[in-house]
């Protein structure tokens, strides 16, 4: 799951943890959760039994995980930046279900700006990620990868857009239609570039990158994350497999059912 820098760089007490810059997000997320909740456990209002959860983390690319390590899971919550990673998880869930005949559930969530989606995939019963690739945008930016030392002027500009702006203007996004906003981003980008000895930040480059960047908002992320969990708890009685959230103007949540591609989608073969 992808996590925001503002979450990972703050402990349970809200104090910035600059010492965690450069570490694996999975490890830091696990530490923050343990600090915030003092150990993790899960229960149900319908039963008196409390199920204790032992959390752990993988510190590698998702695509490098062996499918054997994933066989013990029957629910996959996917919240990543990359479309290719989503496709890998989708293929893995299908492959595992075909291998042992067990039913598995994939819940994919994502957000951009004031919009978000949650998609439910049941192998052989619903449409999958491959069936609806056209719904994904080709513009992907991950602020979490910008917290470390920048290498290019583009890194400095992306940091100003996605991190510095939010620090000064929480839960808003820069409206690049206004010249004063672009000027603010230019100055912030230039300041970061100078602090790392990087040349090449120009007003024109800021204009180009800002017009092609879709920042994420913590409010949208929170809504989508809660919807993913809610969908999981109610999934057996739901007929819809796709939810679309919009917070632009009139806040609304649409639900409908995506149909599987009748031609059949390409699914890469993986070894278990």
Automatic annotation (TrEMBL):
Q: Which Gene3D superfamilies match?
A: NAD(P)-binding Rossmann-like Domain, Ubiquitin activating enzymes (Uba3). Chain: B, domain 2
Q: THIF-type NAD/FAD binding fold domain: from which residue to which, for each copy?
A: 17-230
Q: Which UniProt keywords apply?
A: ATP-binding, Ligase, Nucleotide-binding, Ubl conjugation pathway
Q: A Pfam family in this protein?
A: ThiF
Q: Which GO terms describe its cellular component?
A: cytoplasm; nucleus
Query: Which pathway does UniProt place it in?
Result: Protein modification; protein neddylation
EC numbers for this chain: 6.2.1.64
Q: Which GO terms describe its molecular function?
A: ATP binding; NEDD8 activating enzyme activity
Please list the GO biological process terms of this entry. Answer: protein neddylation
Q: Which family does it belong to?
A: Belongs to the ubiquitin-activating E1 family. UBA3 subfamily.
Write the protein's name: NEDD8-activating enzyme E1 catalytic subunit
- Species assigned in the record: Theileria equi strain WA
């Amino acid at each position: 799951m992808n996590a925001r820098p503002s979450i990972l760089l703050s402990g349970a007490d809200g104090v910035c943890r600059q010492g965690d810059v450069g570490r694996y997000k999975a490890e830091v997320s696990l530490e923050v959760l343990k600090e915030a909740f003092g150990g993790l456990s899960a229960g149900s209002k319908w039963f008196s039994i409390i199920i204790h959860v032992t959390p752990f983390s993988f510190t590698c690319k998702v695509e490098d995980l062996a499918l054997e390590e994933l066989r013990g899971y029957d629910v996959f919550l996917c919240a990543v930046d990359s479309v290719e990673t989503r496709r890998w998880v989708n293929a893995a869930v299908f492959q595992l279900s075909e291998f042992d005949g067990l039913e598995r559930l994939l819940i994919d969530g994502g957000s951009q700006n004031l919009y978000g989606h949650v998609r439910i995939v049941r192998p052989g019963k619903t449409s999958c990620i491959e069936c609806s690739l056209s719904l994904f945008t080709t513009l992907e930016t991950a602020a979490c990868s910008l917290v470390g030392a920048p290498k290019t002027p583009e890194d400095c500009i992306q940091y100003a857009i996605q991190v510095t702006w939010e620090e000064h203007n929480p839960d808003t996004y820069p409206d690049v239609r206004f010249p004063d906003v672009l000027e603010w981003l230019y100055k912030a980008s230039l300041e970061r570039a100078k602090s790392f000895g990087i040349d090449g930040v120009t007003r024109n480059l800021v204009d180009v990158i800002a017009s092609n960047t879709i920042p994420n908002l913590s409010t949208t992320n929170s809504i989508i994350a809660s919807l993913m969990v809610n969908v999981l708890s109610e999934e057996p009685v739901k007929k819809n497999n796709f939810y679309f959230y919009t917070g632009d103007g009139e806040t609304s949540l649409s639900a409908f059912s995506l149909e599987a591609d009748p031609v059949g989608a390409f699914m890469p073969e993986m070894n278990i």
